[in-house]
Amino acid sequence: MKLPRLLTGALLLIFLAAPAHAAPQVGHVRLAHLSPDTPAVDVYLYPFGGDRPKLVLDAVPYGGVSPYQNLGAGQYTVAMRPAGASADTPPVLSANVRVEGGHAYTVAGMGPYKSIRLQVLNDTMELPDGKAGLRVIAASLKERVVTVSAGDLEEDLRFADTPEYTEVDAAMQKITAAAGDETASADVRLAPGSTNTVVVLDGDRGLQLLPLTDAAAPGVTPKGAVDTGMGGLADSGPPVWLVALAGVGVLAVASVLLRLRPRSGGTT
């Protein structure tokens, strides 16, 4: 009887230890075009080292931000090509992003056209009770320095700055960006434990703000995240992408959603 008891004890220890090593296997990535003087681009998402895209977004304009995409944990490559260019055209720029399970990321084209770069931003952080994370991204080329305020937070941001999140009270916050005589503001509800981004954009008549909800909380799927068809997550049909347009003449707080149809998708 001793041997079965030992085996039972060993199996119990293995069972209890397993969850500690079972990290979430799904992460979340969204793509953004935040370079004011760069024309619309086609955005490709590849598995690292692969030449067949899992997803293609056509003609993404300045101010366009996709919903989060559910991705299996691992490494991927994001590439941008001029809108309408063939898939074998060398990309204008590309970047690798390592996706960890339970984490969210934004991959954004940033800076002026002549020195545009892809920036990988971590959208997940641990926060104290009653707090939210807030960051403001300066993507206005007309106003290269903006002063941003939200509650007790006030900071000067230069064009293409991508600061870390600041802990703020989880509440309705009035976010304001000012430069000279130009001012734009938006009331943004910040949920406890959430991370949030406000993008300062060039509009037709001055600055505009685009508020974005990032991760709802660490380890929680961002609201509206959709499957790309990677890692066995594919739905029966192709994924549908929506891009929030906060460009010329459109109020950021009532941004228009543009539906983009992927040109390629599914599992390999």
From TrEMBL:
Highest taxon of source: Bacteria
Annotated transmembrane regions: 240-260
InterPro entries per record: DUF4397 (IPR025510)
Residues covered by the DUF4397 domain: 28-148
Pfam families assigned: DUF4397
Keyword list, A-Z: Membrane, Signal, Transmembrane, Transmembrane helix
Signal peptide: 1-22
Protein name: DUF4397 domain-containing protein
Natural source organism: Herbidospora solisilvae
